[in-house]
Amino acid sequence: MKVAIGCDDNALQLKEAIKDYLDEKGYEVVDYGIYEQAPADYPKVAFKAAKGILNGEAERGILFCGTGIGMALAANKVKGIRAAQTHDAYSAQRAELSNHAQIITIGAQVVGIELAKVIVSNYLDQHFTTEGRGKNSARKIDEITTIETEQGVEEK
């Protein structure tokens, strides 16, 4: 599986640690930046990674900033993307199982490296299905997509 990653200047150390972790686990990593410690705003990285996922450059994404909030807000502005902020193993599982989120976000000032590894594993190990309970989740995702389309939600 190809996994997109990206961060702002508040989360470079965590992004690099998770990038190494993903490499060790055999994932192909597509790094959308940043690459060195320098001031960087999260919207550009989030937009680039989200568009990369929509274009098939990666199947899922993990974005990092100080809290995870900014990356989630920015990625969710890209039409067709569902990004979920995660800070624990259960929300990471549900991001995929209940919401079929293409991206999770993690706050580097909220979560340490070892917990981030658990979160990432719990997210990537899940696979959305429309069977059983997944049927109810699929219906809700369809509702979100309909609203997104009706409202003309687009990136700015």
Protein described:
One of its GO terms (biological process) is lactose metabolic process. By secondary structure, this protein is an alpha/beta fold. It has a single domain (2-151), classed as Ribose 5-phosphate Isomerase B, Chain: A (3-Layer(aba) Sandwich), CATH 3.40.1400. Helix content is 47%, strand content 15%. It has helices at 12-24, 42-54, 69-75, 89-97, 113-124, 133-151; strands spanning 2-7, 28-31, 60-65, 83-85, 103-107. It has a five-stranded parallel beta sheet, sandwiched between helices. The mean pLDDT is 93.
Mind sketching the topology for me?
Elements: E1 2-7, H1 12-24, E2 28-31, H2 42-54, E3 60-65, H3 69-75, E4 83-85, H4 89-97, E5 103-107, H5 113-124, H6 133-151
Parallel strand pairs: 1-2, 1-3, 3-5, 4-5
Helix pairs in contact: 1-5, 2-3, 4-5
Give a quick summary of the entry.
It is built from six helices and five strands; from the N terminus they run E-H-E-H-E-H-E-H-E-H-H. With 156 residues, the protein is an alpha/beta fold.
What is the N-to-C order of secondary-structure elements (H for helix, E for strand)? EHEHEHEHEHH
Structural domains: how many: 1
Strand coverage percent: 15-25%
Low-confidence stretches: none
Give the helix level as a range of percent. Answer: 40-55%
- CATH topology: the name is Ribose 5-phosphate Isomerase B, Chain: A
**For the terminal residues, how far apart are their CA atoms?**
29 Å
CATH class: Alpha Beta
User: For the report, how would you describe the main beta sheet?
Assistant: 5 strands, parallel
Give the beta-strand count. 5
Radius of gyration: 15 Å
So, CATH architecture? Answer: 3-Layer(aba) Sandwich
- The strands making up the biggest β-sheet line up spatially as 2-1-3-5-4
Structural class by sheet pairing and helices: alpha/beta
What's the total helix number? 6
User: What does the average pLDDT come to?
Assistant: 93
Q: For this structure, what is the CATH homologous superfamily?
A: Sugar-phosphate isomerase, RpiB/LacA/LacB
Shape: globular
